[in-house]
Design a protein that fits this description.
Length: 242
Amino acid sequence: MNTESIAFLELKYGNIYGGYPNFYAISDITLLVFEKGTNKIFIESWSNNANIDIVSVYSKVNELGHTIGRGKEVINLRTGRHKPYEETFRLEEEDLKFAFQNLRPTKMPIKNFLLKNLKKYRFRDIIVFDGRRDVFLCERAGVNFGRYNIIDLQKELNKETDYLFSLNKLAVVINFELDRSYLRSHNLEYWLHPIAARQIMPKTAAYDAARLMMIYNEYTEHHEDFMRKAALVINKIQNSKA
């Protein structure tokens, strides 16, 4: 692989259901590598199959990608089963200890997954989005990003626009579209290998990584058009509030 590759890191995580609100368990990780020049896309994913229930928090958005509410649901990482979230539910101390015991063995697989793929591909830049916690959770598992240049696209855009964009809003800005074997936006279209395509499902880290890649490429390769369309979306959101 040439040195003109760039990586995009996305994590999904949640609290242990009934546990501490400030402790997060990783549910899945995606490292997407985009090879400039060839437009090849490589997707490496890891999913946690520990037998624990976590709380998944998701945004409810309108047609402009603007958050109009948040929802919570409980997902078992091993079975994938969903159940309603109850605000007052608390695990007994012994049950919480058992949940932590089930989670502890996942630390090494997370570290191994990331280290293996950081060695497998050659890149310098890792793009994240509001990625402070993502990076922290990876580092907590034992990964050292010291030799990489981590760029938080949300922060970069905030500096330039003085507006805190969400990934959902930016997907609207670029007109993100996933069409079986293709990723499309206003100015870009990339073919996906079937192995990569089947990993990109809504509400997964792979889906967010794909959106992030398209947003970043639109921002860097078609900057003027991107900024103009971003301003239009901001204006529409502000007008809808008036």
